[in-house]
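[Q] Does anyone have a clean structure-token version of this?
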Amino acid sequence: MFTAFFYLLRARGLYVSLNEWMTLLEALQKGLHQSSFTGFYYLCRSVLVKSETDFDKFDGAFLEFFKDMEFTDALPQELLDWLENPKETPSDTFDMERAMQNERLSQQEIQRMFLERLDEQKEEHNGGSYWVGTGGVSVFGNSGFSPRGIRVGGEGGKRRAFQVASERKFRDFRQDNTLDTRQFQMAFRRLRQFSAQIDEAKTEFDIDGTIQKTCDNAGTLNIVYDRPRKNTVKVMLLMDSGGSMDYYSRLCSALFQAVNKSSHFKDLQVFYFHNCIYSKIYTDPYLRPSSAISTEWILHNISSEYKVIIVGDAQMEPSELLEGSYYHYGARDEISGIEWLTRFREKYPHLVWLNPSERPYWGGWWAKTYDIINKDFDMHDLTLEGINNALKKLMVNR
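[A] Here you go.
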């Protein structure tokens, strides 16, 4: 019966070879799935799927074949029962300072702490900052306000979790449109329209001109040459890294690869920030202090001819965006995030914002900052349609 899964995968467009199938069977014999249904899923995906672009096909086939499979949860059922119905907790009782400190915790620290809590916890907790529960600012549980953590039970909404414990949804988070590096590259070809024809001899074969002249000449071939184009496009890419953006890491990675591989730019400058642009931004996505660079230096030294693309979900605690004297990554910033963003908009007339997230429907902090930035900046969805619209904006002389 299990062999039918092999044929289903091939029928759904996945080119699984016999060698790969035998490798999977050998891995199962060695117990690499750890006797877990979830482990079995990830083992199958890692062995049988050759490209991330096929994840959706695999997830659909896996769900189709194993939809009636019964399995037990890895987490204690009593704990899951506690978390089934989130408790309402007034937001003004939360320790927001503690919540923002959670952002500095690494994934490894949070995962280690989670295992410790599972051993220690004996009763239900809600609205706190330490135990697994609902509401509150703890990095474990659901329906809370921590900017990062592990969701346990409940429904996803704020997309702050970097991991979901006990979730059994074997499908990609995007079902409407699969975006890959190739599609992004095709979209960025629109920036060719910025290329300028240089004043040199006509040595470049003009296909459109040749076709037109040949047609005008009753079909007799008439080859046309034109002056070569010189690539004049200069792009600055500023990407939000970490926190809620971890949810979109695969999508943003495809975007970065497309921009980085593109041959349509005369120059490309890539920088990273967390949540909002402040007095320092970074040259690596891990925001290491050694990679920090002064934002003032960028504004003074990178000319206004650059086309600026900001990528971020525009969601953060409002004080990060609206207030100065904000302590961020080891340095106190006396200038508010919105002022830094405004300086960029004033310096660079060709600036767009690409957002991988929809407007938060739950309101609160993140909807407020999203609305402020969306109102003041030319924001587009991080989809093919959104990118095409954004690039059209970049090509318009303002």
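[Q] Thanks! Anything notable?
[A] The two ends are 64 Å apart (CA to CA).
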